[in-house]
Backbone:
């Protein structure tokens, strides 16, 4: 219905709670890990949305929910305006064809016993009945698309270097002509000189094919370089989201400020804003009451431990969940 | 305090090429060569690496995976096992060649005078022993203390790396601690005997950004307190800018450029260093495309006869493909191996 709108993918109040079971035979639920706890964001067609945060903040769980690898506890995922959790089986197949993923570790994500041709064609074979010849044609086409030689279809993953394997993973994601690709830490396992190559490639194919990316990374410079919009997650919640440039220039949430100052600029003369966050990320099992960041926050006041702040608008496309106006 | 007496006990310091420098040279690595003799052929993992490390100083070893950073460090510690072998060069600690020491003598140096922090604290700590046990082990072996005194020393060193209430945390097992805390425990064990040289091999790669910042600050503080010289292995130029006084850039088993940290950032002379620095995405401003280094790092099995970087270099000429460039001393603090600088 809303397919004319610019928003392609939208998460609404998404939650995923994992049960902690105790007891040996009949496990009883002793508590919940609130991995994702009410996350809402939207990704525009042809743009990149970057999710940043420290490990355990729920970035990857969010990606898994969108890929339907996990079932959300509550909330909805809209794709082109349609709620995919209410789709029929056949439409669901259509959806999984148009949402693909590239994972962090190119060693773990490619089956060592499969040839490149089989790895790349698997999403095609699963989602549509194509004649074998057409499948091979398509495989060669995507290999060319990412800049690998089509003749490498008969090789095995171990015959490629770590960097080239990630190229194969990108080719596999492209095979079923997706609309959205979820990039879960796509460059963090790669060498410095290879990273730039992959980031350029991802940008180039996005432009050429009009793809939409959801980028998950912990490296702020990578997210900054790739994304139009971004969201900062902390213990299962989005604490700040909006236009990427705007957030980098005027971070409003103290956690974002801390993250930015902890990021090491590759320039020894850069003015180092030394705001080192003390303490560690709290466990999502028992998140602190009120604002989840307050135990580490230097601006925390009484209200922070009592009331959970809601996202509010601070600029045209900039939302922050903080009780105070700390915009810099 | 025990430490300093030890170094004097070792006798007169042999003349080393750098003993004239004002600051005391702690470690002098000279033309180190470590080869691996595999079935496929000889892998020259470290091929003629030389550098100096002075007291209180941090040197950064930078390069991509497989360029020989870690093998260099393991060679210094004498931890190369078959099919690898150190085939040449020397490693002088206070003028004494470590490569000529017996395994027994090395066991006294490792963990006491030279120590190392590894990348992943989950694999460098033993999961079935408490952290107190593991830190005390290092102190007990090298300082010959026992009982109450050992306990006190362990608590003291855990306090030094800012483990909150160390008396309580002594009995914890590694899995009860967070990644950042575990890495601090590893740091405590490494620093427990006040070493002269600390080798940190990508100690923060497995940590989160905010925890990484905490850990790097801690290492700096402890370094100032204990006056330990550090070798910092990393591939992250952000860490180099924060931590290091001097930098050596490695490529395919050789140091291609070494300079003072700022000098390297402002005036990189080797095309590889320059390209690496340009390929980093920046936090300030917006760039559309990143500058890339085409191709892949070479396999160390069959290196081309000329400069190993030549196949990926934008400024390559015939000379580069024929002969490996000599090390050119551009200034007192800056050397580079490139025909363009000759």
Residues:
């Amino acid at each position: 219905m809303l397919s004319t709108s610019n928003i392609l993918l939208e998460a609404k109040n998404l939650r995923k709670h994992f049960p902690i079971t105790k007891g040996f035979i009949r496990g009883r639920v002793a508590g919940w890990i609130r991995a994702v706890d009410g996350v809402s964001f939207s990704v525009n067609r042809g743009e990149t949305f970057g999710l940043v945060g420290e490990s355990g903040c729920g970035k990857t769980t969010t990606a898994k929910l969108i890929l339907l690898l996990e079932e959300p506890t509550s909330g909805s995922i809209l794709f082109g305006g349609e709620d995919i959790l209410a789709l029929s089986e056949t439409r669901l197949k259509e959806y999984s064809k148009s949402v693909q993923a590239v994972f962090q570790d190119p060693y773990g994500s490619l089956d060592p016993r499969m040839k490149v041709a089989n790895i790349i064609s698997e999403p095609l074979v699963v989602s549509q009945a194509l004649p074998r010849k057409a499948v091979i044609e398509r495989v060669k086409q995507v290999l060319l698309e990412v800049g690998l030689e089509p003749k490498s279809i008969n090789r095995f993953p171990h015959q490629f270097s770590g960097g080239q394997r990630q190229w194969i993973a990108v080719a596999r994601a492209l095979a079923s002509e997706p609309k959205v690709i979820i990039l879960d830490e796509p460059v963090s396992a790669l060498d410095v000189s290879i990273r730039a190559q992959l980031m350029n490639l991802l940008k180039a194919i996005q432009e050429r094919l009009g793809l939409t990316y959801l980028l998950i990374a912990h490296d702020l410079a990578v997210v900054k370089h790739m994304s139009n919009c971004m969201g900062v997650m902390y213990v299962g919640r989005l604490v700040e989201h909006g236009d990427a440039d705007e957030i980098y220039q005027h971070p409003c949430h103290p956690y974002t400020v801390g993250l930015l100052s902890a990021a090491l600029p590759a320039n020894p003369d850069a003015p180092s804003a030394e705001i080192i966050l003390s303490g560690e990320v709290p466990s999502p099992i028992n998140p602190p009451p009120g604002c989840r960041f307050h135990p580490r926050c230097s601006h925390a006041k009484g209200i922070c431990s009592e009331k959970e702040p809601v996202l509010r608008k601070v600029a045209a496309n900039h939302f922050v969940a903080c009780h105070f106006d700390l915009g810099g | 305090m025990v430490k300093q007496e030890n170094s004097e006990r070792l006798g007169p310091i042999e003349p080393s090429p750098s003993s004239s420098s004002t600051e005391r040279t702690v470690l002098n690595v000279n033309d180190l060569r470590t080869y691996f003799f595999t079935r496929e052929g000889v892998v020259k993992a470290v091929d003629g690496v030389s550098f100096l490390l002075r007291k209180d100083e941090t040197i950064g070893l930078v390069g991509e995976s497989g360029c020989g950073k870690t093998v260099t460090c393991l060679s210094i510690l004498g931890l190369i096992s078959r099919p690898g072998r150190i085939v040449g060069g020397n490693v002088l600690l206070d003028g004494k060649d470590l490569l000529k020491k017996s395994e027994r003598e090395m066991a006294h140096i490792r963990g006491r005078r030279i120590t190392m922090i590894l990348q992943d604290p989950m694999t460098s700590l033993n999961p079935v022993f408490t952290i107190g046990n593991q830190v005390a082990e290092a102190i007990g072996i090298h300082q010959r203390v026992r009982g109450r005194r050992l306990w006190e020393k362990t608590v003291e060193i855990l306090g030094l790396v800012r483990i909150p209430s160390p008396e309580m945390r002594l009995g914890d097992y590694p899995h009860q601690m967070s990644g950042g805390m575990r890495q601090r425990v590893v740091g405590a064990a490494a620093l427990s005997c006040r070493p002269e040289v600390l080798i940190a091999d990508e100690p923060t790669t497995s940590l989160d950004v905010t925890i990484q910042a905490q850990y790097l600050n801690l290492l700096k503080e402890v370094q100032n307190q204990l006056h330990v010289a550090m070798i910092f292995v990393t591939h992250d130029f952000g860490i180099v800018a924060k931590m290091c006084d001097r930098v050596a850039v490695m490529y395919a088993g050789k140091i291609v450029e070494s300079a003072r940290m700022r000098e390297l950032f402002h005036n990189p002379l080797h095309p590889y260093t320059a390209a690496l620095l340009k390929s980093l995405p920046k936090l300030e401003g917006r760039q559309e495309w990143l500058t890339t280094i085409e191709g892949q790092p070479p396999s160390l099995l069959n290196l081309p006869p000329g400069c190993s970087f030549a196949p990926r270099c934008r400024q390559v000429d015939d000379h580069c493909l024929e002969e490996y460039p000599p090390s050119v001393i551009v200034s007192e603090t800056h050397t580079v191996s490139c025909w363009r600088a000759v």
Q: What stands out?
A: The mean pLDDT of chain A is 88.
